[in-house]
């Protein structure tokens, strides 16, 4: 299943029933979280107008992403400063991912949040972007993608709406302590991929040190 769960951005018009969605979430809920605190929340967005607004909120971030890609940058990088005029890019638009221009047409959209008052952030005092809190919400988000795949559905886990968190909070009535972690459009894939491109194990795994020998099959 993990080898065929691709990032699906094109869907048919077939609906996703509440029963199917319940089965997806009933399976996904067994994801681990720090201290088993289970601080995540899922908002199931059925209202087309709300889905449309979520798509609109993604657009400025999509535009910046596209402009930085066009400039040869790694988008939203925290190490290398951007040379792109971000405000100009936000106002220009791009059409880079058409999905977000027609999010109201997607059968259902899930917004995943995490209650920061409920989860541990072991890296909160480090002088860098925090990562650890994600360990208490992204396993659930990925389980949703896998469980949806098992039901014949497809989806994509995106964080494009996160920079507009304040407006998402108002739109969905989120509590102040909840951070927006992901937006997942779900539906029946218009096209099904079965072969994904990923780095080989040897490309990202080393033994004992970062500069150690690559882990290879049968090496031991």
Give a structural overview.
With 220 residues, the protein is α+β, with helices and mostly antiparallel strands. It has a domain at 18-46 and 106-204: 3-Layer(aba) Sandwich (NADH Oxidase), CATH 3.40.109.10. The protein contains six helices and four strands; from the N terminus they run αβααβαβαβα. Strands 1-2-4-3 form a four-stranded antiparallel sheet. Helix 2 packs across helix 3 (86-92). The longest helix has 23 residues, at 48-70. The protein is globular and about 50 Å long. The two termini are 28 Å apart.
Sheet with the most strands?
4 strands, antiparallel
Helix-and-strand structural type: alpha+beta
Q: Termini, distance in Å?
A: 28 Å
User: What would CATH call the architecture of the domain at 18-46 and 106-204?
Assistant: 3-Layer(aba) Sandwich
| Strand percent estimate | 5-15%
Helix percentage range: 25-40%
CATH classification class of the domain at 18-46 and 106-204: Alpha Beta
Adjacency order of strands in the biggest sheet? 1-2-4-3
Topology-level CATH name of the domain at 18-46 and 106-204? NADH Oxidase
Mean pLDDT: 91
Topology as a string of helices (H) and strands (E)? HEHHEHEHEH
CATH superfamily of the domain at 18-46 and 106-204: NADH Oxidase
CA radius of gyration:
19 Å
Number of strands: 4
Number of helices: 6
Uncertain stretches of 5 or more adjacent residues: none
């Amino acid at each position: 299943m993990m080898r065929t769960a691709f990032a699906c951005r094109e869907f048919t018009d077939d609906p996703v029933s509440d029963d199917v969605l319940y089965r997806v979430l009933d399976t996904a809920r067994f994801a681990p979280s720090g201290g088993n605190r289970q601080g995540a929340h899922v908002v199931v967005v059925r209202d087309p107008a709300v889905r449309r607004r979520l798509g609109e909120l993604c657009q400025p971030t999509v535009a910046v992403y596209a402009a930085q890609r066009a400039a040869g940058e790694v988008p939203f990088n925290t190490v290398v400063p951007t040379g792109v005029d971000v405000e100009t890019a936000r106002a220009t638009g791009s059409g880079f991912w058409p999905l977000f221009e027609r999010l109201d047409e997607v059968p259902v959209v899930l917004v995943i949040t995490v209650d920061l008052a409920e989860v541990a952030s072991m890296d909160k005092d480090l002088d860098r972007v925090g990562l650890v809190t994600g360990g208490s919400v992204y396993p659930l988000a990925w389980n949703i993608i896998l469980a949806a795949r098992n039901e014949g559905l497809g989806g994509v886990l995106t964080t494009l709406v996160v920079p507009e968190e304040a407006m998402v909070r108002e739109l969905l009535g989120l509590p102040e302590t909840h951070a927006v972690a992901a937006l997942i459009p779900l539906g029946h894939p218009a096209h099904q991929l079965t072969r994904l491109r990923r780095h080989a194990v040897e490309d990202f795994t080393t033994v004992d040190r970062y500069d150690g020998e690559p882990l290879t099959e049968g090496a031991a």
